[in-house]
């Protein structure tokens, strides 16, 4: 498989370090298979060596570093669409192509991968139900001329054919056909089945076994009363060329809905005298007529003699057969079809030779009787039984010669939508979310002429043509098919309408009573209630077009199983008893269905919904054609099976064996064929298992194994042994080597959520998967560690789904933490305390965790690594609905702020609490904050003091008026107001110097709007930050941009809701100059030093990068929970996912040491004052060296000139002076310097 991607060496580790061993086999894909190559992305090269311990806080269930092109945090789809996927070397799943619905089956045929499902589009290419994927080029080639859904494929390279089964029409076959190596369809000798095929396998003897919901071979057929459905001409646009000008005869509509053949004004349409002409009808729907009925006129001796039928939009002249009324011979005609002028011939019928779709036609009159041509009536008839949502397309109520014409009734805000690329116009309803099930409905009433067995289909127009794909969702379809009896109603179906191109869904196969005055069969469509999370936007679009009924014509004698011998060219339906499979099916009760077939070299397993005297729902037939009851079978329906050596994994709706001998088989079980025993997987799951797919992971240091994934309609892994029940979202992974669910393991494991429907091995080293997954390298809920790799903290935080009943339900992942605390889940912030021998990690947010003593922790947790990683939390003093947004620690005292409520030591708590980490108890609490909605967003200690500066949304601290920012003195245990100018809501704060505090938010200074302010503690005054009037909106996050903190980065929200990013460089504000998507939300900013330099820019130095956390919408990529900015480009850094089909988010990175501007590599920027001092020291050193060098040189010179030291004793000085005459001493002053001494 050639996918333009390249290998990388990055993997991840943690507290429990994320061992890369589980990826060994996946990484080897790039080595052993040259077809797959992966493009790695440049390493971020963050230098965390000086930061100590590093933690990541957020709302996620899994996290990965961005290492390969194609990695994403796109959530899994909940609208029914799926992807074709493979795995990257780091274990994440890579999407190769998008399908607009499910890919249900795959197989490899002569090096190509055949894909089957209920999709209509693959990678935007119209591909109804089946297509070819080339693993070497990634190209998709549709296989044309199949309409419907493919459920099963069997690729037989040796025979040069692919067996295709499902619920479809292809060529002249229904529900089963073959695709040949010559790229052509070939019908099987029996032309398919009268019901859907669900599974195909090759038995040990080489015969092909079909399983499904069928009772006979054969095809659909026309009703015994053919040509019974009248096409509505009365609502068409009727026109004519060369009509007569005679009053009462010129209107071409005169002959519509007229079957009496009466001549006269208002009943007859005439042409101009002796002039050819045409009668035309144009429709807003498509149809395939089978018969044309024409009533010739005899008005004044006139009449049509020859004519032709031209179909639109193909502009083709069609062929007919007819009976000549004069000779009673069966004749044909094309361009000159005759009409009799015999007055006793009321009308003539012409049968279409070919079935041609059209939405308009014309009758072109080329010759005439008498003075000109004309007609008295026209009827167009079809075999197809349709009921349209738009009644103008249904049978005409006044002239259809039926008392029960097809019709529909609609309730709700329906409007007509143009057909576009669809076969007809249709109804659309725009409904508000959450959707109510009774917000709209359409009831279809078909005109069923005769009772019998029918296939019922629902047709849905594609969503591309009306641009509603993101707003469509699920509908519920029910039906009443008989006046009474056990089969009076059909089972309710839930269907997706997200198909990009037109499709139909097979609703039901069964008995339908004929329409009568006392009973009408009906099909009802309504929206599925809810759907708020699965549909983007504020509304839901539902569409309604038509339903169709097809009469079944088939042999009988089957019941869900059929054995086909490929060597036979004919089928003898009278000799079914010779097949062990057909014989087995004949023992099943009526309405049985086979869902899954799996074969080994000596047996074939059959699973489904069936019962007989000896087996129930699952059975096997061995190579000797003996039935093997598998310990009596299971007590409920089997939906899926997967065989791994002797272990048969079975999923469905059951809870025990037939005889009740094995408990714990809740919807999933394993059958050991060697011991003939059933065993549970844990205790099972709480809902139906629809598919079982193996995935290759390495869960130890050396062993690779296929773990088993389950997808279905379940929400919980049931408790067993020491494992508590675990909440899931319809997806689970069973780790065979651990005999446990992946979610229960304490070792580092990958994160997977979504659905897998099938997989196929392309080669020994290449596997493709179909489904829709969110996948990340590390499973970690809400928090992770970061060094060179990702890791997890030793705490078990429950997934966000655990909070579904709390006030945080319906979480918006992109809500501002400062202003929407009621929508926050996950870990928001963290801090480390390693003073006085402590080693405590504090995590705050809105989450549930498990304490070491088994109790439940809410929202604030402490991990004591000095005490065997003991996990504790607060007591019942603090409300479970609290949300912690900010933490600050000094001398073992923790101040935690947010939307916090409770009572501790008799003191009310509102917005802020104080806790002693050393004594593990509450401190004396600051007087409670007060206001309309108290939220503390930032807590900062003033450097070198014990003063705690608290910012947020509040009005008072205790009884002290103190809005926005207030100071708590830890020494005095009192609040103080820092200045009187500030008001509004604070989102973030930082100290730029020991005495200057910077605060951002939606603020005011003396009533004037300010988005960034500064407070000078030396004079207790607030002012607008320098140049901050240039900021376009409230500041959400800020961080220092250099070590002196004289520069600052800010992120905020513009008036239109978009996000801006700007830097203050010490004198002016500069925009980052990068485009961020409209959905971007930034929670925090942080500068990092990097180990390898990049190109420098005006905003970011070459050895630094700016990290943004939150949900960063990067154009051309999508969202990333963390991204880095190097001054020119934004690159994803970390990606997250959640279990609830939502992308995750990262709130912030927290560290042990705030040394963001230092590096182990030594290439750090140094403060200018130190640069100046070092320069001065170097200058002084150089000057001293120069002086010393000068003294040394002078001494050397004097020595060369013969100078000797002068006597220093007082005696010598005195005696010497006495010996020198004064005139000689003075005389020497006027003499020059002697020459160089001679040696």
Helix and strand arrangement:
Layout: E1 3-5, E2 16-17, H1 24-32, E3 36-38, E4 54-59, E5 62-65, E6 82-87, E7 93-99, E8 103-109, E9 112-117, E10 121-122, E11 125-126, E12 130-133, E13 140-142, E14 146-156, E15 161-170, E16 173-180, E17 185-186, E18 197-202, E19 208-212, E20 218-221, E21 229-230, E22 237-241, E23 269-270, E24 277-287, E25 291-296, E26 303-312, E27 316-317, E28 320-323, E29 330-333, E30 337-338, E31 348-352, E32 358-369, E33 374-382, E34 385-388, E35 407-411, E36 414-417, E37 426-432, E38 441-445, E39 452-460, E40 474-480, E41 489-496, E42 503-512, E43 522-527, E44 539-544, E45 546-554, E46 561-564, H2 580-586, E47 593-599, E48 603-611, E49 616-622, E50 627-628, E51 637-644, E52 647-653, E53 668-672, E54 677-680, E55 688-697, E56 705-713, E57 716-717, E58 726-727, E59 731-735, E60 740-741, E61 751-761, E62 767-776, E63 778-779, E64 783-786, E65 790-792, E66 826-833, E67 840-850, E68 856-864, E69 870-873, E70 883-890, E71 893-904, E72 907-916, E73 921-922, E74 929-930, E75 935-941, E76 947-953, E77 956-957, E78 960-961, ...
Parallel strand pairs: 1-3
Antiparallel strand pairs: 2-65, 4-64, 4-93, 5-63, 5-92, 6-7, 6-62, 8-9, 9-12, 10-11, 12-13, 14-15, 15-16, 16-17, 18-19, 19-46, 20-45, 21-33, 22-24, 23-33, 24-32, 25-31, 25-33, 26-27, 26-30, 26-32, 28-29, 28-31, 34-45, 35-38, 36-37, 37-44, 38-43, 39-42, 39-45, 40-41, 40-43, 47-48, 48-49, 49-50, ...
